[in-house]
Amino acid sequence: MAHVIACIDGSSITPAVCDYAAWASRRMDAPLNFLHVLGKSEYPIPADLSGNIGLGSREHLLQELAELDEKRSRVALEQGRLMLEAAKARAIADGVSNPTSRQRHGELVDTLIEFEHDIRLLVMGRQGEHGDSAGEHIGSHLENVVRTLHRPILVVPSDYSEPQRILVAFDGSATTRKAVEMVAASPLFRGLPCHVVMVGADKSEAREQLDWARASLERAGFAVNASIRSGQVEEVLCAYRTEHQIDLIVMGAYGHSKIREFLVGSTTTKLIRQSKIPLLLLR
User: Fold this and answer.
1) CB 282 within 8 A of CB 249
2) Is 194 found in the same domain as 82?
3) pTM of the model
4) In Å, how far are 225, 268, 273 from 254, measured between CA atoms?
5) How many whole angstroms separate alpha carbon 222 and alpha carbon 192?
């Protein structure tokens, strides 16, 4: 069975990642798995330093360096284990039954590729462990993960708030039509009011596309508010979010229109940086 997989790293955003993952697990009735990946800096690879220390170096210095690396690895593993145990306890308190966990070492993207077949929804924080003090900085791994994986990715902010209203960014492309179909078919948002927004000129073709999206969601039981707005994608969506108190934005990734810029150009960076609410990216 495919899982909701939540990536945690000990940063200040980790509690929110746990809470959003628990919410998604309950809504989708899917098992929850927490994943902690130890990068090379936390889990160093043993190296032969004998040629790098310098002339006259003592054997005991090499031994001390090896022992320090070994100790560092043990501490990182134990810290990760405790972090995963705390995450599972938090999920249980949030109402999730039998959450599980995995700890791996290596690169996050490579690990997620290995587990991709097991991912129903991936939950990640907007910032990673080294981005806590960087203001609107985006986590260093996030863009690589989004570009590489072909699974839905929920990017969450530092504060948890249970979603009550969602916005689907729609442009009529195959990618965003698939996003509408996924929202309609998934239990994740069932029963929540849904807003569908197109950014561009209000033309008959756009209206036809928007009517299709509205009808598809209404057939699935959603109460839908659909509209077309002109302007820059990120500015329109952020303004609409504020105006209608939207709690979560759904977007198709790598489309073939302005929405494509969301992940390949400045629009991506701006929207993720500006968004104070979760962003669900659908491939």
Assistant:
1) no
2) no
3) 0.83
4) 25, 11, 18
5) 7
